[in-house]
Design goal:
It is built from eleven helices and six strands. With 355 residues, it is of the alpha+beta class. Strands 1, 2, 3, 4, 5 and 6 form a six-stranded antiparallel β-sheet that branches.
């Protein structure tokens, strides 16, 4: 048999021949050829890319899954602090119940913040025409302070914790007008006020503290002030020049005639010197058994001191030093006094508030 050989003609040769025979159709033929003739081995490349992408995606998913598993293993569950807090409270109560074994330790004598005593704001009627908005806010502020004062006075009366007053208070006394004259008027200058003995003690301690500052008597300051305020005062005392001597004098009347004035509807003829403007109380001693002495309350009273003072400075040789403080000048100070009910101590100066 005779074999017939068929010449193989390439695709490029055919395209070249057609373009030479008909030059006007060269561009259309080239365009149609490029559309109809797909490049060789595209299916293989696409399958290879699909397989590669599948493998990479599977590997990435596996890595992310392993990372998530590691994260879930590493992150511990949120601990529940309720049991720890209950154990801590139980331990404190046990220590409080066994306080007779440690008579020198006070479980409830912790360091406290100053309670929210407030300086009353000016709410004169002339502000109604000049600044009515400020008058409204001042009235709200003063009314809130009055409510807190009345509630604190009720708490102190219920615990019978007024210093120097035999207050046999009962719940039925709340329906008496004279009771509300006491509860609602902490700024009273009457000698029959429940705060009258406290005001007398406050003036005595104020005078003693001023003399102690002038004489650099740190022992007296430690008795009349709390630890934090004593540190502040001692810093001021130690910054004074060592070669100077101070003489502190109060020139205004600080006797009982000025402290206790019975005029209610008239302005006071003499400056009272001491006025309680805000008072707060809280039951801090919360042990099961009551304290061996006193009561469970801690009382903070904001007291306004109005005096006329003069500070004379001398050298060691006794020669006076010219200073502006040597002239009599009015001084207004707002001091926070503290009384711890289960301690046998006096009212101590805790802090100073500026208006």
């Amino acid at each position: 048999m005779a074999t017939v050989k068929v010449a193989r003609v390439s695709f490029g040769f055919q395209l070249k021949k057609s373009c030479l025979l008909s030059p006007q159709r060269s561009f259309s033929a080239l365009k149609s050829a490029t559309r109809t003739a797909p490049p060789p081995s595209t299916s293989k490349a696409s399958t290879a890319s699909v397989q590669a992408s599948a493998t990479t995606s599977s590997s990435v998913s596996r890595k992310s899954a392993t990372k998530n598993e590691k994260k879930t293993k590493k992150v511990p569950p949120a601990p529940d602090n309720t049991e720890a807090q209950l154990k801590q409270i139980e331990g404190m109560m046990n220590m409080a119940n066994t306080s007779n074994l440690f008579p020198t330790m006070d479980m409830w004598g912790t360091k406290l913040m100053t309670l929210d005593v407030e300086i009353p704001r000016d709410a004169s009627l002339r502000m109604l025409f000049t600044n009515p908005g400020a008058l409204w806010h001042a009235k709200q502020h003063n009314f809130s302070n009055w409510l807190k004062n009345a509630f604190s006075m009720y708490t102190i009366a219920k615990a019978r914790a007024f210093t120097g007053v035999n207050c046999d208070f009962r719940f039925s006394h709340l329906f008496l007008p004279r009771t509300w004259r006491q509860l609602g008027n902490v700024a009273s200058h009457s000698s029959t006020s429940w705060l009258a003995p406290m005001r007398r003690t406050a003036m005595e301690n104020y005078l003693a503290m001023g003399r102690a500052i002038a004489d650099k008597d740190e022992a007296t300051l430690k008795t009349l002030t709390t630890a934090d305020h004593a540190t502040k005062v001692n810093k001021i005392v130690r910054t004074r020049k060592p070669g100077q001597l101070w003489q502190w004098n109060v020139l205004s009347d600080v006797s009982d005639k000025a402290l206790f004035q019975e005029k209610i509807f008239r302005p006071l003829a003499i400056s009272p010197g001491v006025t309680v403007v805000s008072i707060r109380s809280g039951e801090i001693y919360v042990a099961k058994d009551p304290p061996k002495r006193g009561n469970r309350l801690v009382i903070h009273a904001l007291v306004k001191f109005e005096t006329t003072q003069a500070i004379c400075v001398f050298t060691k040789q006794g020669q006076p030093v010219e200073t502006q403080s040597a002239k009599p000048h009015p001084v207004v100070e707002y001091l926070v006094l503290e009384k711890v009910g289960w301690y046998d101590n006096t009212w101590q100066v805790r802090d100073q508030i500026y208006k």
